[in-house]
Design brief:
Layout (H helix, E strand, L loop, with lengths): L2 E4 L19 E4 L6 E4 L2 E4 L4 E4 L8 E3 L6 E2 L12 E3 L6 E2 L12 E3 L6 E2 L11 E5 L3 H8 L4 E4 L1
Parallel strand pairs: 1-2, 5-7, 6-8, 7-9, 9-11, 10-12, 12-13
Antiparallel strand pairs: 3-4, 4-5
Length: 154
């Protein structure tokens, strides 16, 4: 499966729908779909506040999450082995379960202070990953509590 085309008739997509689709390079959504949209091949809710899935087979080494996104969905980046750099804008508040698990090339991730909610195993199975977190932030507490390597930013 290298691409998915979501028609206007699809109004519900469950969490982790594209996890383990390691060859998936693009997700396209009909412009007439009332619930979802695609931005550069990634799946979002129509209001662009929720990033639901980034195709794991896309061979881009960098990705910038669009400004305005508030939530990174469950398994959204799961298995994205090509990603080396991911920019998360201030304003993102939630990382759902396993949002960034199995991203084997991702070595460092800066977590903005706006992130207040962390699901289960958000960064699971990424032993080489180092989080860059702001001192005394919820992200620092999360990293410490879950024994995730981190560096603090003043």
């Amino acid at each position: 499966l290298s691409s998915v085309a979501i028609p206007s008739s699809v109004t519900s997509i469950g969490d982790n729908s594209f996890v383990h689709c390691s060859s998936l390079t693009t997700i396209e959504v009909s412009e007439n779909n009332p619930e979802y949209c695609s931005i550069v091949g990634a799946l979002f809710t129509k209001d662009k506040k929720n990033l639901l899935a980034y195709p794991a087979g896309r061979n881009n080494e960098e990705y910038t999450i669009p400004v305005g996104v508030k939530r990174i969905g469950a398994g959204a980046f799961c298995g994205c082995s090509f990603l080396k750099f991911l920019e998360i804008p201030s304003g993102v508040t939630t990382f759902e379960d396993k949002a960034f698990s199995n991203c084997s090339s991702l070595k460092m991730l800066v977590i903005p202070t706006s992130v207040k909610r962390f699901g289960n195993r958000v960064f699971g199975d990424n032993p080489q990953l180092i989080l860059r977190v702001f001192q005394h932030s919820r992200s620092e507490r999360y990293a410490r509590r879950n024994r995730i390597k981190y560096e603090t930013i003043e």
